[in-house]
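User: I'm writing a tutorial on reading structure tokens. Could you give me a worked example: one chain, its sequence, then its tokens, then a sentence or two explaining what the tokens reveal?
Assistant: Sure. Here is the example chain.
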Amino acid sequence: MKIVYLTSGPRGSGKTEFVKKVASLYPEIEVISRDAILVELFGSTSLNPYEGGHYIAIEVLHERISKFFSSSKRSKLILDYWNGFSGERVAMIEKLKGLGADCVVCWQFIISIDMCVRWFFTKPDSEGYSEMGIRGDHELYYEMAEDIERDGFDKVCHIDPCQPIIPPSIIEL
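And here are its predicted structure tokens:
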């Protein structure tokens, strides 16, 4: 059974750090990270949106997802990938199911706006962003993810990234 855990939350909500903790506890789970791909390809997650780097990174992400389904002996994949809009989530679920995912679980990160802003500005690539922009992103994400349960996930787990302990129930199905 192939299970995919898809992260969803605003910038600075702790998705990547949470995924790193889970991966250290469950090394048998494969991880594909959009941000790691951006850093690998371009040295940073902060790219000019008009130069096309994000599209190249998404192509690489899709290639790695396809490779996981075609050749990996692992049964679980964490896809560390912001997806704020319903259409993006639905398209990703359809792609994953088409490639062979038996179950797609959403890990939706629930975090206060103040904590999100504070965490975001500890990231190395936060230069050039404004607090107002991050606050706006936080509000927009939760507005756009208000009905995330209707997007077609097999399960939605609400994650509090401020909790020091990772509940095993988010991995067990």
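What the tokens reveal: The chain has one domain: 3-170. DSSP finds six helices and five strands in the chain.
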